[in-house]
Amino acid sequence: MELFDTHTHLDSPQFNEDREQIISNAVEAGVTRMINVGFNRETIPSTMKLAETYDFIYAAVGWHPVDAITMQDGDLEWIASLCEHEKVVAIGEIGLDYHWDTSPKDVQQRVLRQQIGLARELGMPIVIHNRDAHEDIVKILREEKAHEVGGVMHSFSGSWEIAKLCLNMGFHLSFGGPITFKNARQPKEVLAQVPMDRLLIETDSPYLTPHPFRGKRNESAYVKLVAEAAAQIKGISVEELAAVTTQNGLERFYIKRKREINR
Q: Which Enzyme Commission numbers does its entry carry (predicted)?
């Protein structure tokens, strides 16, 4: 059984003491591919280092909405240059976050639009972070013609109505630990309706730890727990769920094609 953790943060300081063991745990659990996400000036270089060190770890690079206020002249060009690397498979995570009051909404929206524009120029998929900003996310994705590149709605938490709008723009929906939470009704209901060819799984480790480890540090090995929960919701075997979501990830991020083009 092959699993694909499509969103993780292995470069987090929470893994400084045992990063190699955490990666080994994931491999032992059947995780054959991971996408590490670099989202600001500090985490993009460490993400690139991981992708260059491990053949099965890929990179997404972008500017997180929480850090939008820190984006400077030249950072967009930096992201563009990194997208030429064979291991960089997406621009992200980018988006809007109206929960944390660290970057003004207008700054977040401007930075998001800039990065969608870059993705369209380069033909790169995008990874969208959306917290408490469903309507504005959909509006900006439409206005910036994000359907031309598509991408992933990371850790999807919206309603089925929002999900349908995202699916219609060519996005995949990715689910993580919350689908294992007892009281998380909405993500389970949405996942049940998502077409199998648009479904992805992730951990977002070290955050959003699935049951029964909720409250502790998350890790990529726990994507197996997400797969088991998703398979139960879908009424299929975990082996089938793993196979489909792994194939979806390879296709969504053009992994095989990108490696071949750059060789």
A: 3.1.-.-
Which ranges of the chain have pLDDT less than 50?
260-263
How far apart, in Å, are the Cα atoms of 4 and each of 107, 208, 234, 247? 33, 17, 18, 9
Q: What is the mean pLDDT of the chain?
A: 96
Between 134-143 and 105-122, two packed helices, what is the crossing angle to 10 degrees? 40
Closest C-alpha among 257, 256, 7, 5 to residue 129: 7
Q: What angle do CA 1, 151, 256 make, to 5 degrees?
A: 50
N residues, the chain: 263
The pLDDT, as a whole number, for residue 260 is: 46
Closest C-alpha to 87, from 146, 136, 33: 33
Q: What is the pLDDT of residue 258?
A: 58
Q: Which fold has domain 3-261?
A: TIM Barrel (3.20.20)
How would you list the strands of the sheet with 151-153, edge to edge? 3-8, 31-38, 57-61, 88-97, 126-131, 151-153, 171-175, 199-201
Going from N- to C-terminal start, the domains of the chain cover 3-261
pTM over 0.85: yes
